[in-house]
Amino acid sequence: QVQLVESGGGLVQPGGSLRLSCAASRTIFSIIAMNWHRQAPGKERELVATITSGGTIHYADSVKGRFTISRDNAKNTVYLQMNSLKPEDTAVYYCNVATPRVYWGQGTQVTVSS
């Protein structure tokens, strides 16, 4: 059974930065894509960023130019660098890995507030 563990969340002021990490407990085979999602209170979960097995990257319009997704295959880890954070970025951030199965992490809270 693969486990995904997110870390790096916290409280940051508007304009600040955070780097989220999502580490898999073991190597995952047949990866289609690795994704970051977020869910704000009272809202549906939304896809924030995707990196496919071929290296293609997509971002939600709301984070383009501010967030960067990357991966380190040797460490079985995907990252989300978040810059110029806004209060509306406040949410629980989840990573997931899509293969023929889909794996989810437990989430990490990001709060952007002064």
Q: What gap, in angstroms, lies between the N and C termini?
A: 40 Å
Assign a percent range to the helix content. Answer: under 10%
| Main sheet record | 7 strands, mixed
Our count of helices gives: 0
Q: How much β-strand is present in the residues?
A: over 45%
Low-confidence runs (pLDDT<50, min 5 residues)? none
Average predicted confidence as pLDDT: 95
**H and E string:** EEEEEEEEEEE
Query: Based on helices, strands and strand pairing, what is the structural class?
Result: mainly beta
**C-alpha Rg (nearest Å):** 13 Å
Number of strands: 11
Large-scale geometry? globular
Can you characterise this structure?
By secondary structure, this protein is mainly beta. 0% of the residues lie in helices and 52% in strands. The chain has no helices and eleven strands. The strands form two sheets. Strands 2, 4, 5, 6, 9, 10 and 11 form a seven-stranded mixed beta sheet that branches. It has a four-stranded antiparallel beta sheet with strand order 1-3-8-7, with no helix packed on it. Strand 4 and strand 5 form a beta hairpin. The mean pLDDT is 95.
Summarize this entry quickly.
This protein has 114 residues and is an all-beta fold. It has no helices and eleven strands.
